[in-house]
Design a protein that fits this description.
single chain, 5 helices, 6-stranded mixed sheet, alpha+beta, globular
Length: about 190
């Protein structure tokens, strides 16, 4: 897994997680955090940084969202969409969404307790688990992410999938900043 942050520019996204899959196994994950937006007054808080970082890393481990409604009460997990990550705007007793919760850890246990003989740990050290040309491919733009698979909250978050054939796929999870949809694939 690689986690990066820099000023990626006004491209519309706050955070992006990409997971690379071979068959039924995640072989690598990339997280990008866009400081262009984190340097604005809207997102320049520890709570927003923690939420987006935790959520995108959670995706690289295979976690999905527990809730996709930005407006309802926080569930107390970073895998819950919210407009109030620290839980202080509407209700001082509301949970924060900046860390994983017990459900997330249960899901990880289910995902990683398997009984087949495949392991990507040894493969990552000895040989790249992805074919040459795919292992270091950087999918930076929506046009490179593939097909839109899922969109929630009127497009505020999206999941894209790109199939490279022979069982190799990449999935990109996107949180759009300020409902900015101007950079999407048309």
């Amino acid at each position: 897994m690689q986690v990066c942050n820099t000023t990626y520019g006004n491209n519309g996204w706050l955070g992006v997680a990409q997971i690379w899959v071979s068959g039924l196994h995640i072989t690598q994950g990339n997280v990008k955090l866009n400081d262009t937006y984190f340097n604005t007054s809207t997102y320049n808080t520890p709570a927003w940084r923690d939420l987006v970082t935790c959520q995108e890393i959670g995706h690289t481990f295979g976690l999905d969202h527990q809730d996709t409604n930005f407006s309802n009460t926080n569930l107390g997990t970073c895998m819950d969409y919210t407009s109030d990550p620290d839980g202080t705007l509407s209700n001082p007793n509301q949970l924060s969404n900046v860390d994983p919760n017990s459900h997330d850890y249960e899901e990880l246990s289910i995902i990683y307790t398997h009984f087949d003989s495949t392991t990507t740990v040894a493969g990552a050290i000895a040989t790249a688990p992805m074919p040459p040309g795919l292992a270091n491919l950087d999918l930076d733009t929506p046009r490179q992410w593939g097909t839109l698979l899922r969109s929630t909250q009127n497009g505020r978050t999206e999941v894209y999938g790109r199939d490279f054939g022979a069982g190799y796929k990449a999935f990109t999870f996107v949180i759009w900043a300020n409902d900015d949809r101007s950079h999407r694939v048309q």
